[in-house]
Amino acid sequence: METQQPIVFIDNVSKSFGDQQVLTNIQLAIQEGEIFGLLGPSGAGKTTLVKQMIGLDLPSSGEIYLYDQKMPSLQLIEEIGYMAQSDALYGELTAKENLEFFASLYGLKGAQRKKRIYEVMEIVQLTEHLQKLVHNYSGGMKRRLSLAIALLHKPKLLILDEPTVGIDPVLRKNIWTSFYELKKQGSTIIVTTHVMDEAEKCDRLGMIRDGKLIATGTPKELIAKTKSATIEEAFLVYGGANDEN
User: Fold this and answer.
1) Measuring CA to CA, how many Å separate 131 from each of 8, 121, 233?
2) Residue 47 counted as domain residue
3) Looking at the 3D structure of the chain, how many domains does it have?
4) What is the dihedral of CA 154, 53, 12, 38, to 10 degrees?
5) What is the pLDDT of residues 64-107, one digit of tens each?
6) Residue 206 contacts residue 176 (beta carbons within 8 Å)
7) Longest dimension (CA), the chain
8) Nearest to residue 38, comparing CAs of 230, 202, 151?
9) Statement: the pTM of the whole predicted model exceeds 0.70
10) What does the DSSP 8-state code read for residue 85?
11) Cβ-count burial 23-44 (b if 16+ within 10 Å, e if not)
């Protein structure tokens, strides 16, 4: 990959809530056009970090830049698609009404809006359920609808917090196929996960444990450096090394 200005630059970011240290001195650059995975167990600090990337939370120290602009920045909202870990949906509305509401926020109108709603619902395989009230959706369906909403405006940067939790393996594979297609179209995708086989699908990984970035690299590099057979083994090796330092 050519050396270029990173699309996301995290400069020595730390975060604490009272006495609890959630992130410690995170230094990370994410390049345009890559699928970057943040891998770590629940409570490692992944969600806190992605919230800071999009400006929903502020670091206690350090700075985050997207497209060379310091976050938070209202100017960049249209450039980012964000899918939170908890679904921000209107249960009393149908899926179509939810999509139309969010599409209007992104300035999508008329035939373009109608076409894009159909396209994203095709990706997540929910077209048959467009007219269903969201409170009648299962948990997995709500995750898929949240992903469809994040994709609506074809964002250049897509930040997805545990996007495939509760989604069956076959559909999860289809969703990852759509991620590769988005990458081909020039999107950059940041995915948080604790699922090891998903981690191996990423171009590069940042391993996070106890709020610290313990390793970065391609899955192959991380496996090779630790003489491991799998990403899971590599994570355990890096985690152990982190304890000794």
Assistant:
1) 37, 12, 45
2) yes
3) 1
4) -70
5) 999 999 998 888 877 899 999 888 899 999 999 999 999 998 88
6) no
7) 59
8) 202
9) yes
10) S
11) beebebebbbbbbbbbbbeeeb
Contacts of 212 (CB under 8 A, 6+ apart): 23, 24, 25, 26, 45, 242
Helix, strand, coil content of the chain in percent (nearest 5) = 40, 25, 35
Q: Is residue 117 part of a domain?
A: yes
What are 187's two structure tokens?
Answer: 């999107």
- Scan for tokens 């891998």, then name that residue: 39
The pLDDT score that the predictor gives to residue 3 is: 55
Domain housing 173: 8-244
For residue 219, the domain's CATH number is 3.40.50.300
User: What tens digit of pLDDT does each residue of 3-13 get?
Assistant: 578 999 999 99
In a domain, 13, yes or no: yes
DSSP secondary structure code for residue 181 in this structure: H
Tell me if 1 sits within 8 A of 26, measured CB to CB: no
Does some domain include residue 2?
Answer: no
- φ/ψ (deg, to 5) at 212: -120, 140
Copy the structure tokens of residue 75.
């100017």
